[in-house]
Amino acid sequence: MFRIIHGIAVIVALFTGQIATAQDTSDDAKVQKFIDSLHFQTGTVAIDAAHATLSLTPQFRYLDAQDAQLVLTQLWGNPPGSRALGMLVPTAVPLSDPKNSWAIVISYQDDGHISDADTLTIDYDKMLKDMQEATHEANPERKHQGYGEVELVGWATKPHYDTSTNKLYWAKELAFNDVREHTLNYDIRALGRGGYLSLNAVASLSQLPVIETQMQKVLTMIQFDAGQRYADFSASTDKVAAYGIGALVAGAIAAKAGLFAKLIAMLIVFKKVAIAGFVALAAVLRKLFGGKSKLATLPAPLEDEAS
Predict the structure, then answer these.
(1) pLDDT level of residue 25 (50, 70, 90 thresholds)
(2) Angle CA(126)–CA(213)–CA(245) in degrees, nearest 5?
(3) pTM value?
(4) Under a CB-based contact definition with an 8 Å cutoff, are residues 64 and 50 in contact?
């Protein structure tokens, strides 16, 4: 396994720049060889497991599930087990660029048809405050488990649901105690007949203008297959999900689905990053929806292999 982060090389550079340069060159060569082995796709891509297709613009290339897993685990250091069905990679920014590279992890959850009846009544400002409180309250437990503290600063992009396309998007600004630059977590949910397609990107907050523009393009690329669109729902035969739009934004279902390999570019740039909201999830659910969470146990945060 190799990483773009040259932590050891930086330490060695204090003693000899020549050794550090040689190490960097060697690592860069390994990274490029790995990237050259990937099978990038363009044009129209079928996501069979989600009953959907992506009509890619020239600004993006696609990696299938196998290659996406390799990128997540071998290049970016995530633990194995992600449910990623694929990955979108910006054409203009090579994966080998440790500071600017980012990508979109694609997954699908088939919990049933998600009602959007609550979209007109959701108070996203109140939801944000509840999420902020829950995230803050969970910091002692995160610290106890050996992970850095994190604060949910606010919406980088306020949640928006398009009733004509049945697509939802939002972005959060996160602050980690050991990272100077804030983190951007950008999410898209495209609702289908029996579930939703999830597209998640994580990057530095300074990349928001670029990612905001590109993610808006991604929204137009997503299309469910005939018979699997949101409008094809049949109340007499189809399963209905036990949650609505609010739960998607709050993050409940992301935890349930095991979608924890969303670090993407942040794992390239920083050695220690812990995604916000895992330990805080139960508290968020209680604040937003009342009662106890139906999730008996919460998955552990991502392991930090680069100490």
Answers:
(1) low
(2) 35
(3) 0.75
(4) no
